[in-house]
Structures are given as C-alpha cells and as structure tokens.
C-alpha cells in the first residue's frame, strides 16, 4: 500500500460482513489528525488452483442493479431454473444450459453482457459505496506451504475482465476470466437457483 512504516502509529482491522469489503484496515499516521482507511476483500484458498465465488444473488436482484430488459431476465431465470425450460428434452429438466437457448436468445444475452461488461465486473468484484473493496488479499495454504499476495482492486478488475465473452463447452457463460453460472448444490433447495460468479484467485500469484 506504499505506507512509510516508520510513520504509522497504530493499525486497527475491523471484520465486516455483507459487503465486498471483508476487512477494513484503519491506519493512524503519526502527527496526523486523520485516519486512513483501506478496504480489503479477502480470498482464502486451500488448493493450488480452484474457483472461488465472488458474488451470488437472485436474478431479480441483478435485474434491479443493472436495469435488465425483460428478455434478459427471462433468459437468466430459465438458465438458473427459477423458470422452467421452454424447449423439448433439455439436458436437465430443471433448467436450461446456455447452449440450449435458440441462437437468437444466445446472441441477445451475449450482446447484453458485452455492452454491460464494465458495470457487471465492477459490481461483482468491487461493489459500490464507501465499503467498496479497494484491494484484494489472496491467502493460500497448501499442505505445509503458505503464501499471500495483495493487489489493488483496479488491477484485479482489469485482469479478470480481460478477454472475450462466450458460452463454455459445459453450457455456462464466461466474461473474460470470470465464470457466470447457476449456483447449484444446496441439496436441491431453492437457493441452488441463484446466479453466481466465480474466479480463480490463485492466478494473481503469477501476474
């Protein structure tokens, strides 16, 4: 963070919940009346590689945040299973995969994601308001080895958003290096129908 350690008088860390910022660090500088505040998002990983959830919500919540057209809401609700498939013989009777939508709807959703890419990536990774995350801290512990890395959030936004938007061979969506998919799991509870976004935080160790 480029602080002069000799000038720091006191550091206090506050754990938060329900925000993109997991830990707020308050830094008191000697001979200064003001306290600097740094908002950190923390990712803990226990494998050499692996996806980590960065955001999940009901489609309706994203629709409100991003002012989604009704056609996009309909596609995403069929994708997550909130609405039933409207095709014959879907691979999963509970929902539709991205590659099962008619070509017209695939083009519609991909174009919408491209047009709103910057807003989407910023909201799911950084968040909004005074508790938006300004840093990402990745801590990895594998067997007896441990390491950590701190990156500015703007670097992370650029890194993970870089690349094309497409439908994966498994029928999910990719926004650069971010996977957008149906949450699934949860023993079949309704929360499995939420939309989630995932990244591999360990990629930052090599960038």
Write up this protein.
- With 207 residues, this protein is of the alpha+beta class.
- It is 24% helix and 31% strand.
- It is built from five helices and ten strands; from the N terminus they run ββββααααββαββββ.
- It has helices at residues 59-66, 70-80, 103-115, 117-125, 153-161, and strands at 8-15, 23-29, 35-45, 52-57, 135-142, 145-152, 165-167, 173-175, 178-182, 195-199.
- The strands form two sheets. The protein has a five-stranded mixed sheet.
- Helix 4 (117-125) packs across helix 5 (153-161).
- The mean pLDDT is 93.
List keywords for this structure.
207 residues, alpha+beta, 5-stranded antiparallel sheet, 5 helices, 10 strands
Residue stretches low in confidence (pLDDT < 50, at least 5 long) are none
Q: What's the story with the biggest beta sheet?
A: 5 strands, mixed
Average pLDDT: 93
Structural class: alpha+beta
How many strand elements? 10
Large-scale geometry: elongated
């Amino acid at each position: 963070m480029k602080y002069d350690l000799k000038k720091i008088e006191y550091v206090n860390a506050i754990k938060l919940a329900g925000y993109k910022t997991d830990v707020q660090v308050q830094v008191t500088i000697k001979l200064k009346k003001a306290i600097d505040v740094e908002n950190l998002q923390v990712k803990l990983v226990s494998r050499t590689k692996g996806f980590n959830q960065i955001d999940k919500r009901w489609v309706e919540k994203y629709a409100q945040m991003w002012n989604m057209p009704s056609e996009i809401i309909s596609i995403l609700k069929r994708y997550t299973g909130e609405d039933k498939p409207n095709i014959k013989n879907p691979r999963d009777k509970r929902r539709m995969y991205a590659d099962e939508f008619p070509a017209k709807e695939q083009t519609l959703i991909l174009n919408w994601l491209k047009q709103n890419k910057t807003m989407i990536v910023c909201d799911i990774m950084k968040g909004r308001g005074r508790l938006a995350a300004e840093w990402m801290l990745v801590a990895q512990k594998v067997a007896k080895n441990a390491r950590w890395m701190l990156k500015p959030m703007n670097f992370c936004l650029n890194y993970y958003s870089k690349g094309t938007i497409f439908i994966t061979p498994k029928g999910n969506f990719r926004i650069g290096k971010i996977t957008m998919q149906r949450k699934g799991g949860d023993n079949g509870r309704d929360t499995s129908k939420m939309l989630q976004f995932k990244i591999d935080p360990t990629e930052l160790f090599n960038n």
